[in-house]
Design a protein that fits this description.
alpha/beta, Rossmann fold, Alpha-Beta Plaits, five-stranded parallel beta sheet, 11 helices, 12 strands
Length: 334
Amino acid sequence: MSRYIKIGHEGIELELPVHALYLYRDNEQLLNNIASLITEGNVRKEKCVFVGSASDCKQLKKKFKKNITTVSKKIPAPEFIPWLKRQYDKLPKQYNGLRVFLDSETSYIEYEDILDDFHTRPDLRLFLLCQYHIETIATDHLLNILKIHPYVFIEHLLKPNCFYTRLKHRIWIDPLTGIFNRRYFENQLSKELQRASRYEHTLSIMFIDIDQFKKVNDEYGHDKGDKVLVELAGILERSIRSIDVVARYGGDEFVILLPETKKANALRTGGRILEHVQNFDFFKSDLKIHDISISIGVAGFPEDAGGTYELIKKADIALVKVKKEGGGKVLTCG
């Protein structure tokens, strides 16, 4: 099963993880916006369950009748995951999946990472939408909430001036290149390593560094250097699969996470990236500068390391090895 499902909203199809977040200010906004998601769930023959206040349950029952199951009794945070698993285990055969809309509180935060267990079950089709009432959440709690949700799903998600979209970007996105940052990469690598270990899958990562990048900054200015970083980020994104993760690790270093990928395949991907960089005109022929080249170090799980930082270190060792040999190629640490 894909770890993502597509949810149509206001005529736009957004690809979201099965565990999503919705921030709302008032109950009318909440009920209006999730109504389309409930309707979609019914069309897809997914059982829809709403867990919230008695008044909200009453309104949804009035609107959807037998097409929605409501739970007005509060589910304590420690009991939520067992409750959710029971709901799925007893799901009637006529349903293709389960959609749960949970009116959350900050007490649920420490339990939500357990939901990663659901992502590793190939037979599962679960969509959990955790809803938080913004007026009752302090700023520090909001930041903690955003950290455990890779994506923020709100009414104006695609509008650049949205306050919560900016918050999301400040946590997960590198402001210069627009790709993910180091924090997000390490978070995802840790989760993917747990899955790979549990199901005996392979996994590879690549460390990428621009050769002689200091020369670009020194001779042509930091504006040109920033342009190179942005262009390279675009090349890397276009060179990988949708399930891979590319991030800026810091400075002129980039990293790529390749789930369920052997080192041999990662090396081939690295070779393809080298070719794309070699053929790309970073300066549109307006500067007489040597062609930009990159170095790539590759490490793989389980043969090179079993932990997040050990694997990163091995990929970095491979990158240093490439640099010592003059750069412009891809090597493993072995």
